[in-house]
């Protein structure tokens, strides 16, 4: 009977001999896959790192036994067994380990990153604990769809020390999600013993989160399958999350090549007495299965594994010409419409109206974040939307890693989440979810993973918010390949760009300036949308090009109007999208004006202006009649005192003075 089609069955029905024989076959498959992977690694046919789960076969098979194809799992860096138990084929997995084009992820992921969202496998993960926020997203998608789906997040005892574990379990409890957090407790965190890493057990932790806890012998596949059968059925009926602790043991080291100085051979010999395969064979014998039948299974699986290895070896290495494939999805480049001039509205109205329209037109869109629901967001942008969209404006705990990580999982599961990080400064708290998950998973899965998600946040210096609530961190985010970074400069741009961001197939960080929420402009037509990655000429000119974005645009335009009285004609370019950068518009403008200035609110060193200056030097050098000028705050934390903050943050006076100086440099 196939894993992909296995029915859930009664909650705790006795496992038949036929079922147990199939479980045994799957465990043998995992065992021989891992042993073969070890051999191939020693022969240098598997590059990179290799982490094996020999000894833990029963947890993978038992936990996945009652899952449907559409149910989601997340895995660990030791995840081959989970992927095989959920239905992945041997050949593509071996090819992936070898870095071949025929690999599950076209050789882009390797041992630690195998995934196939089409089978509900949302990824093994090289970051300890990182799969747990993602699995809450898969469970969120299942709950929003109301299709009875469940999710299982595998993790090791070492991940319990991660903040992502706490945030994920707590979020799942608060949202009452259909998820099992499944701990494969093999008693070692890398080289450290479990008792040296924790002072509280998982039973106590589960009680602290207010969720159910179950313990099971992780080497007994029948015990695991029967327990999980009941739990999965309960989750399908609407029962809340569960924390399962399966006691097991890994026979090999943390990684292949681990010298294993931290445990004794006697300890390993004792653990092998509880070999999951031996336990299953003994039980099958009790049920009357002839030993010859089991030997035939062993031989059949061995032949399948060897055939898969040979097939994987025949797969070619990826063509270097495909190196940029799957970094992100190339979007259509439609003609940008002219906005109609309606009644005036504020930028805060633009954000709300764009989200409202997208939620009306696409039921996959939902919003989540700290106080975005009942509170309507800290700036009251979304007040009343919980009544308009019941169950789709979700309040979260103060858990940035869980907020963004769950968005990753929900996007992979087919939703289009729009999640909020209250202040841009807090991006650092959830940087793994952005940098290692949202930005990389499409590439590392060879394009199998879809990541249509938006992370909204805001920033803005000038109101004495201090160093931890004022930072403009777009340069850091733009340096992460795979992320789209958008910074609107006013209400019309906020409306059109946010709609485009929500519709985008790529992960987008959408950054608003809170000092502009009251800024007014004429409301565009409802279907107005601005293509991402395209700058605009705000003010045509012939003498100097100034590239800017976000709130600094108003300061630059004011300065340009001032110096026009001195006969200096300034062309102003609003980037709108920081990454991908609209290089063509910048270079075309530079070719006309032959002088370039960049102005932004992020600190100058290593900022967006530095990238644009490099672009001008590399590709626009022969158009330059003067050095590129950067207007930006000095590289230091944002001051609190108004007098210091005013001295730190450039304004229209600083810009105008710099324009006058630049106009005097070089030929006229």
From TrEMBL:
It is an enzyme of class 2 (transferase). Its EC number is 2.3.1.61. SUPFAM superfamilies: Thiamin diphosphate-binding fold (THDP-binding), TK C-terminal domain-like. Residues 345-519 form the Transketolase-like pyrimidine-binding domain. Its cofactor is thiamine diphosphate. It catalyses: N(6)-[(R)-lipoyl]-L-lysyl-[protein] + 2-oxoglutarate + H(+) = N(6)-[(R)-S(8)-succinyldihydrolipoyl]-L-lysyl-[protein] + CO2. It comes from the Bacteria. Gene3D superfamilies: 3.40.50.920, 3.40.50.970. Keywords: Oxidoreductase, Thiamine pyrophosphate, Tricarboxylic acid cycle. The keyword Oxidoreductase applies. The keyword Oxidoreductase applies. This is dihydrolipoyllysine-residue succinyltransferase. It comes from Kineosporia mesophila.
